[in-house]
Amino acid sequence: MAPSSLAAQLAQIAANSKSTLNVKAQKAAHAKSLIFEPKVAAGQSFQTVYTICREGFDDLCHLDARFAPYDTTLFSEQSQDEDRTQMTAAENAELDKKVDAFLHLVGSKLRLMPAIKAVEWLIRRFRIHEYSTASLITTFLPYHAAPAFVTLMSILPTKIPNQYKFLDPYIRSLTSPPRATIVQQAIHHFEVLSTISTWTLDSCHAQQQYPGLISFWGGVMTEAINGMLDQMRSGRKAIQRDNDQELLQKVLPILGDALMMKKVPGLQIATYMVLSVYAAKGDLDDTVLSEFMHQLVLGWTGETVRPGLICLSILAQYRSAKQISWKVAKALLKVQDLEQLLLDVHKEHRVDKLANSLALALIDRLIKKADARGLPLIRTILAAQMLNDKLASVIFKTLLVAGLKITDDIDEDGQARRQLGLTIVALSQATGESGDLYRTVIEEADFDIDDLELRLEASIRPKKFIKQTEGDERLAEDEAAAALAEEMDLDAGLGRLSKHKKTPARTCLASDSDPIFDELCQLFIAAAADKDDLMKLDEVSILARETAPADCFYFSFYMRIWLGPYPILARARALEMAKTRLQEPDCAKLDFQALQPYCIAALSDPAKKVRRAASELLAVLQSNISDAGSRKKATVTWGSQGLYKKSQGLKWLTPEANRALLELIIVPALEESIMHDDHIIAVLKETLESSNKQSTEKESSKKGHISSSIRSSIFSFLTSHVVESPVLNLKLRLLKALNQVQKVSGTSRTPLLLPLLQWWAALPHDEARSLAEKESLDEAQVDLNFVDIIVANDTTGLECVYDIIQSKTAEDRSGLVSAAFARIRKMWPSMKDRTKFDVAQKMLELSQTQGTVAEEATDLLRNVPLTTDILLAFLEALQDVAQLAAEPPASKRRRTSSSDHHRVGEMQTSPELAAALRKITLVLQLVEASEPAEHPELLQSLFMVLSELQTFRTLVGSELGYLQNLVLSSLLAMMPTYRSDKNLKIDTSVGHGDVLVSCIQKSSSPAVQNSALLLVASLSKTAPDVVLHSVMPIFTFMGSSVLRQSDDYSAHVINQTIREVIPPLIETFRKGRRPIVASASELLASFVIAYEHIPSHRRQGLFISLVENLGPQDFLFALVAMFVDKYGTSDNVLTFTADLINHFNVETQLQTLVKFLELVADMFKSKPNLSATLFGKKENEEEVNKTALKQLTLLPHILANRSLKREIRKLAYRDDGETVRIRELYAQLLEDILTVADTVKARKVLHARCGDALSSLLNLLSVSEFIKSVETLLDRPNVGLRQKVLRALESRVDSEGQTDVESRTALLAFLPQLTSVIRDSDDMLYKHTAVTCVDKISEKYGKKDIEAVAAAADTIAGKHCLGQGDRRLRVMALLCLASLVDVLQDGMVPILPTAIPQTLEYLEGSLNGAEFDAELHNACYSLMTALAQHLPYMISGAYLDRLLAVSNKSAESSLGAEDHEERTQCLHFLAKQLDAKVLFTALQKNWTLAMEVGYAAIREFISVLGMGIDKHSKASIGKNVSSLSAIFLGAFDLRRLEHTQARANMSKVAELEDAVNEVALKMVYKLNDAAFRPIFSQLVDWACSGLPRSDILGATLRQQSVFGFLYTFFDNLKSIVTSYASYILEPAAKILSNASLKDAEQREAWKRVLRTLTKCFEHDQDDFWQAPSHFGAVGPVLVEQFLHAPQLDLTEELVPAVVELAAAADSQEHQKELNTTLLKHLRSETAAVRLAVVKCEQALVDKVGEEWLSMLPEMLPYISELQDDDDEVVDRETHRWIVKIEGVLGESLDSMLQ
User: Fold this and answer.
1) Among 1058, 1049, 1056, 1066, which residue's Cα sits nearest to residue 1090?
2) Domain boundaries defined on the chain
3) Which of 74, 506, 1260, 1538 gives a 20 to 30 Å CA spacing to 1576?
4) Which among 660, 801, 676 is positioned nearest to 717, based on CA atoms?
5) Residue 598 pLDDT more than 70?
6) DSSP 1243
7) Is this prediction's pTM over 0.70?
8) Which of 1.25.40.90, 3.40.50.200, 1.10.150.240, 3.30.70.100 is the CATH number of 1663-1794?
């Protein structure tokens, strides 16, 4: 009965309850102790425990006063009386809180005994190990390796909290859990980690932490986070993201709380360690990392700031390189000595990303709030190289950008910008690699550094120090800083300037004023930011401000400043100072046009501020000119005498031109020029280039019209200043405009500016570089602008360029030389043809020199378009060069030998030859690069050069392949032009073809050969007459060289040559008298011979191209035949030729095969024609046969090609004209094969090849098409042909699928014709083949047309086939009929009355005679097997008797195993399929015949019988029991009958009897008791009384057989048939009693009877043998058999029978009777009898045991007598009997036997 729900609830309450009424359980609970053994603890009272534990608590209070409050609670006197089971839930909860608080506090003291005693009290009194299990375990867990933890585990309750379930195995084994286990649990079960973390954090909040707890938590937490990160790894981003989020949500509260524990630095440091691991492996995003950083700095203290900084640097390393939050940065700024701390950490850890993020945050704060507090820290970070170069560059550049972004709104007093400026200056002026890096950043800055300097009021770029005079020692290296400070002091500078004397040249543009200018410039730059300082400097006497209108020093100083490499502010201030001075009255009367070029140059300044100042200055100049014009007074031109040292070449503007320049050109463009620095250049170019022919001098005053004279004046004015001014920047800026003006009023710029170029070119390299560097200009740009002075077609200018190029300083001034060549290249399109020709000749001449000039000249020629005339001139010059190189000087000719060898060796080393090769190479390269197709006129010259190269190469002793290839590629490029332009003709009489042949044959360079072949191919198409007469040697050469190349280009060349050359060549052959194939045989041979040298991957494509261009209809057969003749019929050759032929259409393939067969037939003619040409003449018949064999071997291989079959079948369905043509070719091919086959009939191998080809040919068509052909062929008289056709049909049937409807229909429709052949033909082989075809067709498709198959079967079974005398035909007919039985089944019935007798007759005949006909034998059995399988009812009666009789003979024959298998299979089918009555009746009749034939027949008979019994049902067996009984009686009589014959072999008889017994058992299994019992009775009677009494031997042999079966019967059926023993009691007793054991047969019968009885006794389970009648019938008889002991050993048969009878007759009376009789025999006089009985008694003791020994008293006297027996063996066995008895009884018999 199931328990009620109430009972279940009560059971659950009892399980969870911590109180019990069970006294034993209470005692066990009280015995739980940390200190005492359970037995001791169980006997202690609470008072005793309290006394002991109180001592420990008092000691704790002395150690730590925080324990004192528990004196009145947990450890008070009243606590002894508190019982938790009596307390309310609220009281228990309050108690738990106190316990937890105490455990938090006591955790640090658990290694001390007082603490263990205190906890002992809580366990014993308050049972905290049951009520606060989790808290108690957590308290002890940091000490998990200590013995105390093991003791704790021993007292824990059975049910512990879930988070600590992992301790169960350790609790059971009482072993310490390893740390790894705790970590693993923390990884896989977060509640473990959460419990430990919560306990630790609570302890820290209560200030009850201790180092062991924190280190334990930190270690577990770190390893757990590491493990969880590994565990949560996933290859899918979404899953990984979810895992990361889940972990973060779990640990973030714990870590956040721990980071804020300011009073517990140890916990914070442990958390830093956890964070470091988490960041390193967790792939956290920037938001999370930033939050951790914020919490970290929010909670750190002075004690934890250094490890916190390390952790912060680690977090930053895994964060992107962007700024940290201002909160973090602000916290960092508050750290004392942060700079030094960062430096210390930097020595041991990477802080680059933290420093970078911090610097970015500080800079951002600086930009937004003008907070400069972080600048010292940034300076420290950058100066200490905490960052790599890339990050440092970014930070420094960000500082520079910050200077641009800080506005006055944020930084009102400019203090932040000044500090930023000081920081940038300090960093940029630092020494070492860092200083170089920051200076590089400034130089590469993509914003206006000058503007930045103005904003920061500091000079950021590196100072350009003034050169020191020899006497000035103030700037020594050790006083550099002081010197700089002094230089920057304006008053000190002005004081130094007062000591200077005025320079002789009163202009700053003179070189001797440089020292003064440099010092003035330095002071000016320093004062530029302060206008008051500027005014002070402006008043210095050395500047001569007062005399500025008359003296050039003042204005030239400022001119040099505003065009110099100085800060923007300085340049702008210089223009402003000049403007201010010009506005004074004393300048109004002067013409300051000398300032205008410098102002115009300033208008193209990159700085807008400078351009604006320049525009204001120009406006003042324009105003002054207007005033002067209104006064109409003559003005003096300022600077006309003293501005430049030499001013003779200066051109000055007329007043009109001066006014026009300012008023009409410059001033209107000022606003736009301020906006764009290149606008003024465009304005000048447009103005100077404009040519208004209608304008006149009078019109020049009109607004907007400038006359040519004025433009010419302006042009001359500007160019003269460009030439005369020493300021390179002025030259450069004005040249940008002037170089864009070709000429003005017929005056080219080149004559005006050429002196400038000549001056620059004449300067030494160092001086030119110094001038450019002085003004911070790019020397290369200066070179380019200066050479741009030259214009195209100006002879003087070009000569100047040549002079520059060819000057001695050209190598030093390589930049200028390169610029000159670049200028020529740029002018080339504008040059006249004559000028181009001259320049090209000059360049060619220069290219043959050495050095940079030669390289530049060569490069120029390669990069400008060369005219046809130039190229022709170059090529003509080559002929002279080749001749000069080939003819040595006269003096050398006299000294050299006449030997060519020595001459070549001499020439190879001559400088002349090397120069000639260089020139030839260059010219040919130029020709090739000049697009030769555009210069077809060069063809003749190129061929001449190619011809010369053939001679020249022998002189040089080199291939000159490159040069030849250049010529050939150029010629090849011209061919399309000659083809498209009919007016261009190629001279055919010159012998270009011979030149190309020579080039191809003599060259060993594949590139040359390929190019020459391509040219030949192209010429063949363009001008065939040029090369066709020379083409054959080319193909011969190709076969030995070019075809061997494996590269793609060579393949292209070959294909191109074949495609272009062969078609016209074939057309030439067609015009000849010889057959076209014979004419081309040499060509074909060249390709065939080359086949083995052609790369394998190129072969097929090349020969396909060859055949397509030759014409496959005419040449494919010949090429294939030559292949096979040359290379034989290896698999590779056969595959290649088949693939080659398969490339073409079906008609071409069949036509090729027809011609191929004609060629083979030609070989056997008395006078071969084409075959002799292609294969060569054969000396004897053997050679002809070898060649023919190769050809005929190829033929079937090609015909068997699947692709050919597929294409032919496609055409067959179309049934159009092409199909008709295919059929015609097919017929022709068939006829040719037959013709050749007849020709070679005497040559067996060749004839066989023809047969193979014929079969392959016939297989080409589909079955339907094939049958159409077959129907025609079968009418031919050639029987052999018809037979082969049918064989082909047979193979076709095999290959066809059963689902092919068309094939099936055609083949079934063909069956009547095959039947006709079988019926009407006299040729046995033909009939045989026809029958085979019928067999194949019927087997595959017969069931679809039963009538046609039945007709064929009738014919085959008749006299025309099966009835014929030919053995092979009979065999085939039988096999065919066997197949037809499967197809027709019942349809075969009408035929069988004829077929079966004939078959049996043939079967009998196959076994008669000297030799057996195994094939016919097997065929007969095949048919009979088919009948047995499908029509078993047709085999019965006489047929079956006859078949079984002949099978007996077959079984005894010496046929092979396979033959016997055929018969066995047939008989097995009969056994399974025949009706039981028919089968068993026939077997009954056949038994005697089988015995007469022999043992093999008997064995097979038994096998068939057994299979029949197995197959048929119990009912069938029951119905035929009489036949079976007769069979088995005969079988059991086999031993007797065999014994009467001399051939008897008892061992084989025994084997047969075993088989019979086994089969008999099968019958027994299928019979019930009612059916079998009469049979059994009959069998026993038959065995004992079936023979005359006189025939004792016969009766004995029959009894042996029967009792042999009975032994098997009782042994297998066991207790089921024990009752059947009643039938054998009397016969058995009689045999045992009457047996004469001296007779061997009777002795064997005696043994078999005993064995049978033994099995009966052994399996008696129904007390059959306890019946007195049954026991009495055999018991005494058995015992009497011991008297036979002297004659034989009784232990094998008799003793087991007696023992089993004693065991089966389980009755004391029967056993006593047996024992009494046996004991009597112990007193026999015969020792053998006594010994046998003793052994029997031993066996009885073993088998029956104690029951048998109940008769021991009766045995003892006999045993005692036997102990003294005279026979030693009896005596020994008696002792063994005694031992066995003692073993059963368990006591000794000695006392009983005394």
Assistant:
1) 1058
2) 27-165, 178-320, 345-463, 543-745, 1111-1261, 1281-1386, 1391-1469, 1663-1794
3) 1538
4) 660
5) yes
6) S
7) no
8) 1.25.40.90
